[in-house]
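Give me the fold.
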Amino acid sequence: MKIGIIGCGYWGPNLVRNFNAQEKADVVAISDLHQERLNFISRQFPAVKLLTTDANELLTSAEVDAIVIATPVSTHFSLGMEALNNGKHLLLEKPFTATGEQAERLIELAERKNLRLMVDHTFIYTGAVQTIKEFIDSGQLGQLYYFDSVRVNLGLFQHDVNVIWDLAPHDVSIMDYLLNRKPEAISATGMAHFENNIENIAYISTYYDNNILGHIHVNWLAPVKVRKTLISGSKKMIIYDDMEPSEKVKIYDRGVNVLHDKEQIYDILIQYRTGDMLAPHVDLSEALKKVSREFVDSIDENRSPLTDGKAGWQVVRILEAANKSIRNNGRIVEIH
């Protein structure tokens, strides 16, 4: 399978390396607007046949079976439509598109042309998230209570999107995958501290049925890098710390038991439960290797990939609603 990659900035070389490592795929063409970047890529991957500043050469080439797009989100829709219209299978970096409407149009076109459409929600393919997913689906966590994540660091400030569109797609995609349900409403607050009026800190709350709450904190102005998620259920609780080198997932047999006093029917007694902590084995192999394999396999097997266009659309809908809520001072935005 011949792969063409459009956009070869920070993430591009990782994509080239991982696709070239697949037995059933080869990167045959790369496009980037900057010639110096292409020169760098040429030294790193001398076997790539076509290096060009013109993305149309990849989009229209009969030598390219599938296109991977790793460019700013503002270009995803136009490039994606061109790729699909030219009969290319398509993998888009996160976030999928700039609007939900754009996502819907890409999904519709891919389905009409029977082409595979995938979004690189990389964290879904990590061993940590897969371990958590298995644990939740097995019922061992019990009734879900909340998903609470923090993703903060100092920099890198973006000039075209705010901190929600830059950092939150990771956590929103993880939340959507693990909870496996659609939010009913979104509320978000944020603040821009500089003259560009781009929010550099934000808090997103997502409301689900059965009193499940999702909360995501993203921030470009933190003194340290934090990547931590807490997931609570009626039986057990999980801490997922991506900064941990080995024990990324810890499962705690802790929580509360609610008891009703038989003498005083309206009195509720809270009894704390403290048990053992388990750190399960987690596959630490590179997630992007699994992403590239899933894309190639989904094409080869003519099936939807794990993180398909609909998964990307769901994340974009939440980001859109969060942005709308911020513009309205945190007002709740319902999602239909």
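The chain has a mean pLDDT of 94.
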